């Protein structure tokens, strides 16, 4: 598949700082859509804080 151009410029996320890359793989027509909204309970607020910390506002609403 490499000879067909698949994976060109791919950056392995676990090699990136914080183990999260800034690559976008979603198709344009669904990129930026909200798929998850954390609830008001403590556990989901922890998830929300982790998402903010790792992705630095990329998925902020």
Find the structural class using helix and strand composition: mainly alpha
The helix fraction, in percent, is: 10-25%
How large is the count of helical segments? 1
Low-confidence stretches: none
Count of distinct strands: 0
Distance between the termini: 36 Å
Largest sheet: none
**Rounded Rg:** 15 Å
Q: What string, H for helix and E for strand, traces the elements in order? A: H
Q: Which percent band covers the strand fraction?
A: under 5%
Average pLDDT, all residues:
83
Shape: elongated
Describe the structure.
Helices cover 23% and strands 0% of the residues. It has one helix spanning 42-55. The longest helix is centred in the C-terminal third of the chain and has 14 residues, at 42-55. It is mostly helical and 61 residues long. The protein contains 1 helix and no strands.
Summary tags:
single chain; 61 residues; mainly alpha; 1 helix; 23% helix; elongated
What's the gist of this structure?
By secondary structure, the protein is an all-alpha fold. The chain contains one helix and no strands.
Give the helices and strands, then pairings.
Layout: H1 42-55
């Amino acid at each position: 598949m490499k000879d067909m151009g698949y994976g060109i410029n791919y950056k392995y996320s676990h090699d990136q700082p914080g183990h999260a890359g800034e690559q976008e793989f979603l198709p344009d027509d669904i990129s930026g859509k909200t798929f998850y909204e954390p609830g008001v309970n403590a556990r989901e607020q922890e998830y929300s804080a982790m998402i903010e910390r790792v992705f630095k506002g990329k998925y902020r609403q």
